[in-house]
Amino acid sequence: MAADKQRLRVAVLGAGLIGVDLADKIHRSQKLQLALVAGRDRDGLGLRRAAEMGHPTTAGGIRAVVDAGPFDVVFDATNADSHAEHWTALRPTGTTLIDLTPTGLGTVIVPGVNSQRSAAYQHVNLVSCGGQAAIPVLHAISQRCTPTYIEMVSTGASASAGRATRQNLDQYIATTSAAIRTFTGTRDVKVMVNLSPARPAPPFRVAMTVLADGVRPAPVRTSIAAAAQAVRAYTPGFTVTSLAVAPGRISAAVEVTACGGRLPAHAGSVDIINAAAVLLAEQSR
Predict the structure, then answer these.
(1) 68-109 pLDDT per residue, tens
(2) Which residues constitute the domain of residue 89?
(3) How far apart, in whole angstroms, are the C-alpha atoms of residue 220 and residue 213?
(4) Assessment of whether the complete model's pTM goes beyond 0.85
(5) Catalytic residue (one of 12, 35, 129, 161)
């Protein structure tokens, strides 16, 4: 009981693939206590799985979260169209809201890049799964040269993209592009997304092409290696699979394999953004 009192009391809003994996990761955390998983469909698979894992559940959505609060942290794993309403409801309670939807609202945080600032903010935004995978590498590159154009292509398995993810693809592209501009200082950015129905399901992969002035291969490679090591501290399945550095051009690709827990290996997109969310929640107090 004493240990529970020391843990932060948290809730997960959303019971899709992301929400259920969050519940699993929180259950394994030594610093967080999962007090509620809230969805909208009482008979939905996600709420049933959360209940089977032994977590309190409700089909009352955001209203149930507010009524059961206050919480130290709430994770929003719903969809971009609903997030503003959720922030409006939770803001007066003093709860820290960690947004896993691509709204672009809140303070953008990427662990390993600017996570030291996260505890100062009540409303945190995690960009997107592709943003979490690409931005540490792109930020590292921008510290060693001056990018003039950045292109990012994320490819994930259809099986790892739920309904909300598919509905929010436009927001995903816009929010990820804006975050890349912020973290690299590059105005000319292009983001593309592919959902692959291939069998077996492919791993989550992000390919990046950077055109830049002042490229020096050795410092660029050193910075990328350090960035990758920082990401692996909370997402062990993160790997730089290819890297080519030449005058004026850098090409890099990373893959994320889901490790441990209940996720299939191909669901690295879910793994990296959820791992980032749990890490930030643990650091929020």
Answers:
(1) 999 999 999 999 999 999 999 999 999 999 999 999 999 999
(2) 2-127+272-282
(3) 12
(4) yes
(5) 129
